[in-house]
Amino acid sequence: xxxxxxxxxxxxxxxxxxxxxxxxxxxxxxxxxxxxxxxxxxxxxxxxxxxxxxxxxxxxxxxxxxxxxxxxxxxxxxxxxxxxxxxxxxxxxxxxxxxxxxxxxxxxxxxxxxxxxxxxxxxxxxxxxxxxxxxxxxxxxxxxxxxxxxxxxxxxxxxxxxxxxxxxxxxxxxxxxxxxxxxxxxxxxxxxxxxxxxxxxxxxxxxxxxxxxxxxxxxxxxxxxxxxxxxxxxxxxxxxxxxxxxxxxxxxxxxxxxxxxxxxxxxxxxxxxxxxxxxxxxxxxxxxxxxxxxxxxxxxxxxxxxxxxxxxxxxxxxxxxxxxxxxxxxxxxxxxxxxxxxxxxxxxxxxxxxxxxxxxxxxxxxxxxxxxx
Length: 373
Ligand SMILES: *Cc1c(COP(=O)(O)O)cnc(C)c1O
Hints:
By secondary structure, this protein is α/β, with parallel strands linked by helices. It has two domains: about 10-20 and about 270-370, Aspartate Aminotransferase, domain 1 (Alpha-Beta Complex), CATH 3.90.1150; about 30-265, 3-Layer(aba) Sandwich (Aspartate Aminotransferase, domain 2), CATH 3.40.640. The chain has twelve helices and 15 strands. The chain has helices spanning about 25, 40-55, 70-85, 95-110, 125-135, 155-165, 215-220, 230-240, 250-270, 270-290, 320-330, 355-365, and strands at about 10-15, 65-70, 90-95, 110-115, 140-145, 145-150, 155, 170-175, 195, 210-215, 295, 305-310, 330-335, 335, 345-350. A seven-stranded mixed sheet has the order 2-10-9-8-5-3-4, with helices on both faces. Strands 11-12-15-14 form a four-stranded antiparallel sheet, with helices on one face. Strands 1-13 form a two-stranded parallel ribbon. A hairpin with a 7-residue loop joins strand 14 and strand 15. Helix 3 (about 70-85) packs across helix 4 (about 95-110) and helix 5 (about 125-135) runs parallel beside helix 6 (about 155-165). The longest helix is centred in the C-terminal third of the chain and has 22 residues, at about 270-290. It is globular, with a radius of gyration of 21 Å. The protein starts with 11 loop residues before the first strand and ends in a 6-residue tail after the last helix. Pyridoxal-5'-phosphate binds near residues 17, 73, 174 and 176. Pyridoxal-5'-phosphate binds next to helix 3.
């Protein structure tokens, strides 16, 4: 087969990103844009920035947004590296790989930090956080992941940031895998810096991340950056002054596709409707998998509608690679597990995925349950 004649979508991605996206999102990438022309900057980038802020809160006047080249992690690193002053101290709460990634970033950037580490299946304990904050008066910033994609656990962000604010601590939330798919109001939730990316619940394609920041907090960060290319303040100041201008080459096609993805999110009925669809996907999945004899890693009460970890079957004949390959041949890509203490696999419920696809998936899993015949 000629490489240019690949079938359009040989399988659905039931993964935490990149996700299956709509045809219309992909189609927008079939033309070129000039990075400094108004058609691009003013009409697309500025429009996106305003829409993101409006999506994030009912108090858009308090917030601004910045788009940042790279995958989601680049935006996380941009925030951690740009908003904490030299004498600041960061508390990172971690119950998974993405929390750990913020710890690693802080370490490499030589930021003074403290960690509150938990098992991947544990929720942070609010009383414990409060005692850490009370005993460590030098902590100036707190970072936490909303949906920890490692397991699919949903952390009590609102309660955590509320505690942080009681101690006058600035709040950073990695809402990478939840923003656009779970309703939130970052002003009501007392979040100063919220991070997400193009290829998660907004259903765009990968290539940039974005930060929604309390304007008064970002304005104070002009001299804190520890990296030039990831300088959040400078990127923001350039976008403000240049009406959508990025500092360096921007992922124009990806940005155009993202604009389309935002329109499609609006058409669907906004975040509330999308959350409902993802929830339906996830509940259909868990109900069906339970019928097939699978067990979720997390108690249902901890579970997000984004991605679900299942315990691998105990049968000796089961192995993930074979299970994966068989499902792939039937049109579904699933994800390996990422939990230290148990053998698991993950199935995502986000992207251009509907309950009917989940039903097909369940049917396929039933057909290939080769290990229990
Ligand atoms: C996807 C994701 C990220 C970013 O990952 P990239 O591979 O850099 O895009 C960060 N945090 C969470 C919780 C995520 O789900």
